[in-house]
Design a protein that fits this description.
The complex is a heterodimer of chains A (457) and B (444). Helix content of chain A is 28%, strand content 19%. With 457 residues, chain A is an alpha/beta fold. Chain A has a domain of 287 residues: Metal-dependent hydrolases (TIM Barrel, Alpha-Beta Barrel), CATH 3.20.20.140. In chain A, helix 4 runs parallel beside helix 6. Chain A is globular, with a radius of gyration of 22 Å. In chain A, strand 16 and strand 17 form a beta hairpin. Chain B folds into three domains: 103 residues, Urease, subunit C, domain 1 (Roll), CATH 2.30.40; 258 residues, TIM Barrel; 40 residues. In chain B, strands 5-6-7-8-9-10-11-12 form an eight-stranded mixed sheet, with helices on both faces. In chain B, strands 3-2-1-4-13-14-15 form a seven-stranded mixed sheet. In chain B, helix 7 links the parallel strand 9 and strand 10. At the A-B interface, helix 9 and helix 13 of A face helix 2 and helix 10 of B.
């Protein structure tokens, strides 16, 4: 009972004596307004050179300034926090996550732009706590890859939350920000046919036909010119496609094999959608083509190749090769495929295989923000941006380093010194409760090895 | 499907070609014709010099040298005391360690493609099949085995996977060889059993944890009877008489049992020859495994053990080693309470811990014990303790410490070379030597 209470407070940020005790300096769960100066840390602002001994000043949930100790101005009302020996950098941005057990399209059709992943997410899932322990502050939560188009994704900040609404990122006009998930290759094909494609050729044909239909819907609305009598019947799926045509809703496209990657690029040109390529296992084989198309890549780094035919050639070297070719590179956890607590590891392994350190750190932060159209508000420590940052006890690319604190919009949302948070950083009895792992398209063998019956989809 | 086959063959060829390429400069450089080592390739005289040499048999040696001849280690010590004779090929590295040991894998039985034709790690036709040998299923040329080798893993304990109550046998082999016979160290290393939800069948038995235990106990009792009958028969033969056989009692006992591979395999567990490796993750399953070992007095290897930190006293008391689940395993299902600190808690209590790549059903298709031990090193184990989990301690637990696991004179010349702290993500494995042969030199 006691444990459960702590967990709820940690997740939902209920004001309580326990929480106050966890923040001895008087910062409550819901501060963020306070002006705080973190003094003495090595600061990696990502936009701008690293500062050996710097000051990060935050207030009103924003970054106020970043500068070297001695030069940075610290207002009299600021609370000073000694961060000597620590490393401060922007919160990490995962461009592809399945935390929260969200779902998207059902088995009725391979193309379902009407479904929204945010209608299905459990914000109390312990995966969110592990993500904070890994230093993640912004996620793109997606439906799965078992469909050609599996629905609308949602961009979230890992604020303290009681409902998904607390996590959503909204545009200036209130629009709930997110992309459109698409996939090609084997995950979205079905052997038993039905409405689903059985081949890659059929997959592309279904997608092309869908875009034609969506354009007709768009054109009908244009022709109606505001006359209700001439308007087509409202179709919430095609409405979402209008946002794709407006380039507001970016297509996040699962794709592995080099020929599937080329198919995505071809369809994006024909159908005029903005796209980010995801996984991109074979991306290193067609890096120049991706670069020429100007399409960003969000890549996954796995411990070994194989496990599915499309991932036979997945490699640590993909990030470095794409970087060299001039592609905007980001990383993702694909959590539950890789645990969010090892997100830094993805970048470090890419560096092991040739990516630059600077490029890898950008790929974890600002590049991901750019892919989600959030680069004006997060992803680097520029003044005016949201105060989304993390404090580490060592170099971000070292296996030995730990995320000590994670801050979102000026609020501390993870503190490794707090036992209620620490259990999610290292694990332990009770760490996995309240989670609802996402299992679409996982190999049955995988569920078996985890000790989960396949009926538990 | 032919594509897959062609691709598979091509990859195997390339592995062989690569190893030949690596050997050629050795031959040319040394201008020596040496006798062949285990894998059929020619061995050479090699000197490995490391800024830090972790022998795992004593303190690490700064600026150390390991001399290799005829596949064995012939000298180990500081460079000041171990001169390199003429004609030796010299390899240098920041860090030199014994070749790493993967204490529990399925690679070789489970292949990279994850298609039916390369997944031989689990036969589901029966709940209890201890007679299934790993030997008959390992593809030593499997690409995943070569992948592991590239990170410095020179020995692996592989075989039938967890997932049925008793799924079969495991073996220990080097990670290179033209055939499994070439690579083999131990033909039957253990028999694999599984407790808990992974070995619960949706139809048929065992359908519950209690039934799992009942079936295991009954089968072990049968195997004991089988052994006793065989022993009775042997005793009767040695005293040479129908008389004594008659006096043994019931008419049934007169006829010796016909040979039964299943009973034979379990009898080897009961007589202590072969350990029973039981995968048990939840605390209650660990308790069950200990209870079973206590009743039948077999050698227990505890595998998985995600909640073992709750059972430290009991495991220590039983004197059982732990083959810990991959430290980076996903925390759901039986692993929902897994902790990065389990290894350090067990080691602090004096329990021997080893690391495993385990079985992976999807992606990544295998894990790498170097990386798994690194996470333990970052979560409470010292560098040396973490390295021991994949070298000396693993060798000792697996019963192969006379051959591998440390850098000592007379042991197999299995070495791994790194350009920095092997546990750091950004370091590389820059050389692998097995049986005195350089099998990898590409930075990985």
């Amino acid at each position: 009972m006691h444990r459960r209470f702590l967990l709820v407070c940690g997740m939902a940020g209920l004001a309580s004596a326990l929480v106050a005790a966890a923040f001895p300096t008087g910062v409550s769960c819901a501060s963020g307004q306070e002006t705080i100066a973190f003094v003495g840390a090595r600061i990696i602002p990502v936009d701008g050179p690293e500062i050996d001994q710097g000051v990060l000043l935050v207030g009103n949930g924003k970054v106020l300034s970043v500068g070297p100790v001695g030069q940075a101005e610290i207002p009299a009302n600021a609370r000073n926090v000694d961060a000597t020996g620590k490393v401060i950098m922007p919160g990490l941005i995962c461009t592809h996550s399945h935390i929260g057990g969200g779902s998207g399209a059902d088995s009725s059709n391979p193309i379902q732009p009407d479904v929204r992943v945010y209608d299905s997410i459990n914000v109390r899932d312990s995966g969110f706590k592990r993500a904070l322990a890994g230093g993640l502050t912004t996620l793109n939560i997606m439906p799965g890859s078992g469909h050609l188009l599996s629905g609308q994704t949602v961009y979230v900040k890992l604020r303290k939350a009681e409902t998904i609404d607390d996590l959503m990122i909204r545009a200036g006009d209130g629009w709930i920000m997110g992309g459109m998930k698409m996939a090609n290759g084997t995950n979205s094909m079905r052997e038993d046919g039905g409405a689903f494609p059985g081949t890659r050729g059929k997959s592309a044909a279904l997608v092309r036909q869908h875009y034609i239909k969506a354009r007709e819907y768009r054109d009908k609305i244009a022709r109606a010119d505001g006359d209700p009598a001439k308007m087509p019947d409202r179709d919430i799926g095609l409405e979402a496609m209008l946002e794709v045509f407006q380039k507001r809703r970016v297509v996040h496209h699962h794709t592995h094999r080099h020929d599937d990657i080329m198919t995505v690029l071809r369809l994006a040109v024909e159908n005029d959608f903005r796209v980010v390529l995801h996984h991109v296992s074979d991306g290193w084989k067609v890096a120049d083509k991706i670069a020429a198309a100007g399409v960003p890549c969000s890549i996954i780094v796995l411990d070994s190749p194989g496990g599915k035919l499309e991932a036979l050639d997945v490699s640590f070297k993909t990030g470095g090769i794409l970087e060299k070719a001039g592609v905007l590179v980001g990383f993702h956890t694909d959590d539950y495929i890789t645990d969010s607590r090892f997100f830094f590891r993805s970048a470090a392994l890419a560096v092991r295989a040739g990516m630059t350190r600077e490029g890898a750190l950008r790929a974890l932060t600002i590049n991901g923000a750019t892919m989600l159209d959030l680069n004006d508000r997060t992803g680097s420590l520029l003044p005016g941006k949201d105060a989304d940052f993390i404090i580490l006890d060592g170099d971000p690319l070292s296996v030995y380093s730990k995320v000590l604190e994670t801050w979102v919009e000026g609020n501390r949302v993870f503190d490794r010194n707090d036992p209620a948070d620490r259990i999610y950083a290292v694990g332990g009895y009770g760490a996995g409760h309240d989670q609802d792992p996402y299992f679409c398209c996982f190999h049955e063998l995988m569920m078996q090895q985890l000790g989960i019956s396949s009926g538990n989809d | 499907m032919n594509n897959h086959f062609a691709r598979n063959s091509a990859r195997h060829l390339s592995v062989v070609r690569q190893s030949r390429r690596a050997i050629m400069p050795v031959l040319v450089g040394a201008m020596l014709f040496l006798q062949s080592a285990g894998t059929g390739e020619l061995a050479a005289q090699i000197a490995v010099r490391g800024k830090m040499v972790y022998t795992m048999a004593g303190e690490p040696i700064a600026d150390g040298v390991v001399l290799v001849i005829d596949g064995k280690i012939s000298a180990v010590g500081p460079a000041s005391q171990v001169p390199v004779p003429d004609g030796y090929q010299i390899l240098t590295a920041e860090v030199v360690t014994p070749g790493l040991i993967d204490a529990h894998a399925t690679a070789g039985l489970s292949g990279i493609y994850n298609q039916a034709h390369d997944q031989d790690q689990l036969d589901k036709s029966g709940a209890i099949q201890p007679e299934l040998r790993a030997l008959d299923a390992v593809n030593i040329r499997e690409e995943l085995v070569g992948y592991l080798r590239g990170f410095g893993i020179t020995t692996f304990h592989t075989g039938n996977s967890t997932g049925e109550l008793v799924s079969g046998q495991t073996m220990i082999a080097k990670t290179i060889g033209s055939t499994i016979e070439d690579a083999m160290l131990v033909e039957t290393a253990a028999i694999i059993a599984t407790l808990g939800p992974r070995a619960v069948r949706t139809s048929g038995s065992p359908g519950t944890r209690s039934k799992q235990m009942a079936m295991l106990r009954q089968e072990l009792i049968k195997a004991r009877d089988y052994s006793e009958k065989l022993a009775g028969k042997a005793a009767a033969e040695s005293t040479g008489g129908a008389e004594s056989a008659e006096s043994a009692g019931k008419p049934d006992d007169k006829s010796p049992p016909s040979r039964d591979l299943r009973m034979e395999a379990l009898a080897r567990v009961l007589n202590g020859e072969v350990p029973l490796m039981i995968t048990a993750n939840k605390a209650q399953d660990i308790a069950t495994a200990l209870r079973l070992a206590e009743e039948f007095k077999f050698r227990l290897w505890l595998d998985g053990a995600s909640e073992s930190y709750l059972m430290v006293e009991e495991i220590k008391e039983a004197g059982v080693p732990v083959f810990l689940h991959p430290t980076m395993t996903r925390s759901v299902g039986e692993y929902e309470n897994m902790s990065f600190e389990t290894a350090s808690k067990l080691v602090a209590a004096g329990i021997t811990v080893t690391m495993q790549s385990g079985f992976e059903g999807y992606v990544p298709k295998t894990r790498v014990v170097l990386f798994e031990a690194a996470v333990a090193a970052a979560n409470g184990l010292t560098f040396n303790q973490a390295l021991a989990t994949i070298t000396s301690d693993a060798a000792r637990v697996l019963g192969i410490a006379d051959r591998v696991g440390t850098l000592e004179v007379g042991k197999d010349a299995d070495l791994a070379l790194y350009d920095g702290d092997p546990f750091e993500y950004t370091s590389h494995c820059i050389g692998v030597i097995i049986n005195g042969q350089i099998v990898a030199q590409e930075a990985r």
